[in-house]
Amino acid sequence: MKNIVAFDIETTGLDKTKDFIIQISMVKFNPETYEVLDTYDSYIKPIGKYIISFPAYLRHRIRPDFLNDKPSFKDIADDIIKFFDDCDVLTFNGNGFDIPFLNYELKKINKSIDFSTRKCYDSFIVEKMRNSNSLGATYERYIGKTMEEMGMQAHNSMSDICATIEIFKCQNEKEKVEPDKVYGDSGMIRDMLFEGNSYPCFAYGKYRTIPIQFISKIDQNYLKWAISNKCDIDNETKKFIEQYIIE
User: Fold this and answer.
1) d(CA 26, CA 97)
2) pTM for the full model?
3) How many domains are there within the chain?
4) Would you tell me which of 5, 26, 43, 231 could form a disulfide with 87, CB atoms 3.0–4.6 Å apart?
5) What is the pLDDT of residues 42-87, one digit of tens each?
């Protein structure tokens, strides 16, 4: 069995064609004993002009000035490639983000890692498959039996709502469920966890999952756009956003 390299990257943003890797961390381990065999951790300074997007900064808190004395990606690319030698791969959501982002960065300097020849494990995908958030899977986790075993029919609206009530009952028995706040009909604003606390956040768009109170401090123009006629959201949501606009 091959050793496995678990790796993760931090970036200036989510678009691999425009953004850059600014940190890469790797751990090589034996998958039978889980003994750590080697580690690698490096911050990276992008070459040329770059901007760390505000949503990215809120997640990793890496500032551009911190990167001033760090190596470029080109400087460490060979070390990264060598670390993966004859190893399989482990990530968390890496199949959709870290792996394609890393290889895109490598291809800029005419290098690459052939991930297609390796076993690539993605714990994010495994978790979604094993602990699906679908109604049927959630019902079975709480009740211990499938909806069908309890005489229900999945995707029948009456069965679905009866299953939902049973789930709600079990959730409340475990810990009191607090109600969600509805900010309007569009669903653009929802309460979400951010750094351990719940805040009203944008549910989609470039500031998706970022609290509005933080956005108000760095991008008033975005909030003004959100309440304008150019943005197709309901009036109740716009009224809520207005309180964060500073004239």
Assistant:
1) 15
2) 0.74
3) 3
4) 5
5) 999 999 999 999 888 988 999 999 999 999 999 999 999 999 999 9
With a CB cutoff of 8 Å and minimum separation 6, the contacts of 196 are none
User: How far apart, in whole angstroms, are the C-alpha atoms of residue 187 and residue 229?
Assistant: 17
Q: Are 91 and 120 in contact (CB under 8 A)?
A: yes
CB atoms within 10 A of CB 203: 15
**Assigned domain for 11 exists:** yes
Which residues face 121 on adjacent strands?
A: 90
Crossing angle of helices 157-174 and 135-143, rounded to 10°: 50
Q: Which CA distances in Å does 246 have to 8, 21, 221, 225, 238?
A: 38, 34, 10, 13, 14
Q: Residue ranges of the alpha helices (H) in 84-209?
A: 98-107, 123-130, 135-143, 157-174
Whether 15 and 95 map to the same domain: the answer is yes
Which residues, listed in sequence order, are joined to residue 211 by a DSSP beta bridge? 201
* Domain co-membership, 103 together with 154: no
Take residue 6 and report the two structure tokens written for it. 């678990």
